[in-house]
Amino acid sequence: MKLKHANLAVTAALLSMVCVQGGASIAKQLFPALGPIGTSTLRIGLSAILLLLINRPPIFSFNKKQWLYCAIYGLGIAAMNLIFYMAIQRIPLGLGVTIEFIGPLFLAFAFSRKWLDVIWALLACLGILLIVPWQNNSIDIIGLVLAFVAGTFWAVYIVVGGKVSKIMDGRHAVSTGMLIATFFIVPFAIWDGAIMDVTPSLFLKGLGVAIFSSALPFSLDMFALGRLPAKTFSILTSLQPAFGALSGLIFLGEFLTGMQWASVACVVLASIGTTVFNKEESVKAEVN
Q: 284, 5, 229: which is closest to 111 by C-alpha?
């Protein structure tokens, strides 16, 4: 991997996180009117329309393998987003993002081959343990479980995204994946019924969520996944809790304790460590 490509991929991953957490803050403001299912449907559906119009994927020319990977990728997107929104309806955004990160953290352990990789993963794990308010009986256990399940689908999203980006154009994969995710989530929206309460004002907010939480970050993720190892991308995304906590504080007034901020620092350090280490590996590879 060339160093320039690695730097661009890391930048894309960071921009993706800024977008998705900012979009999540907007989305949470829609929950009182639309609920997590209606908000998630609006986000995914509008994202799919935008991406299809912009990228125009040649869906009729895909082979069976491409369709299979796109289908799994799309299901992962739908489940990850729907369950995560259900989680942050019950718990603070920063806490939800950090618990959800267990999925990428598991990948970091699974793909680790060197002791230094394990150290960064353990540091991120310590951060997750610190952010959970163990002494707070008022914390919503269902919200924590939902965030954990969302993290499982986040891991699926990372693995399948890396594979699909190698067998087809990343833009076409994202567009098709979002289309499949829309078909998957619409029945839930019809059953829930809240989507029928969309007003012009809510629609515009939903469009903002679609752009910043799905269309833009998923495209950036696909660019990064095609140029970074799954292990590197997984630990790099440990910055998500920091962005989530800051976004929740700035836009939603959600405060974390000192111990929880310390946990955010742990996962940030883990992210910086793995990024710097992989840059050094890239430089050595270029020299050799």
A: 229
Residues composing the chain: 288
Rounded-to-integer distance, Cα 218 and Cα 214, Å: 5
Q: CA-CA distance, 192 to 35, in Å (whole number)?
A: 9
pTM: 0.77
24 pLDDT tier (thresholds 50, 70, 90): confident
Note the pLDDT of residue 288. 35
Query: 238 vs 123, 184, 206, 233, 245, CA distance in Å?
Result: 10, 28, 26, 9, 12
Q: Which residue has the tokens 């993002």?
A: 97
Of the pLDDT bands very low, low, confident and very high (cuts 50, 70, 90), residue 238 is low
Decide: 69 and 229 in contact? Cβ < 8 Å.
Answer: no
Amino acid at 87: A
Please state, in angstroms and rounded to a whole number, the distance separating the CA atoms of residues 36 and 87: 9
Q: Quick one: tokens of 279? A: 């840059």
Listed by start position, the domains of the chain span 3-287
Q: Is the pLDDT of residue 86 over 80?
A: yes
- Residue 108 predicted with pLDDT over 60: yes
**Distance from C-alpha of 253 to C-alpha of 174, rounded to nearest angstrom:** 33
Q: CA 67 to CA 145: how far, in whole Å?
A: 31
